[in-house]
Write a structure and sequence with these properties.
Length: 187
Amino acid sequence: MENNVIKMIVEIPKGSSNKYEYDINTNEISLDRVLYGANFYPGEYGFVPETLDWDGDPLDVISLVTYPTLPGVGVNVRILGSIKMIDAGEIDTKLFGVFADDRRFDSYKNLEDVPQHLKDEIENFFLQYKALQKKEVKINGWGSAQEAMHELKECKERFIEYKDRYSKPGGKDEIMAEWKEKGLGQG
Ligand SMILES: [Mg+2]
């Protein structure tokens, strides 16, 4: 992929407290829940199509943005790194990047180019956003762009391996139970 640019489908625009989620089986974006607390997505949040992460969902992406878009919009994101998140014991990595088609981010080529406070804000958001749900989120630091792209490759391969089973009724639950039993993807 040229300059680590990937296609993200936006689920949640920056500033929203509505947790919209895409459902691969119904092909719809639905409101999963309103965040329990006064927490707001600090970037554009979505996923990479045709990927499967260890939490049973497509690989997540959070991107810096100047002007929020809309749920369902496809955006080219230049990946700068990843946030190694563990959500309720499951590996739930977030790719991190910037809009590739916003000239304001042209000088952002890797994690070191991003102001520290913006990274701190995003990290803090993920550590806090489930606090009132009494769910534990851990972050094992940030990964480089290279690590992020490797993660993406693995999630694409996993999608190909499981897509037939995944699309059957109850398929996702079955796969998740299998992974748990084998200790796969646990943080
Ligand atoms: Mg996820």
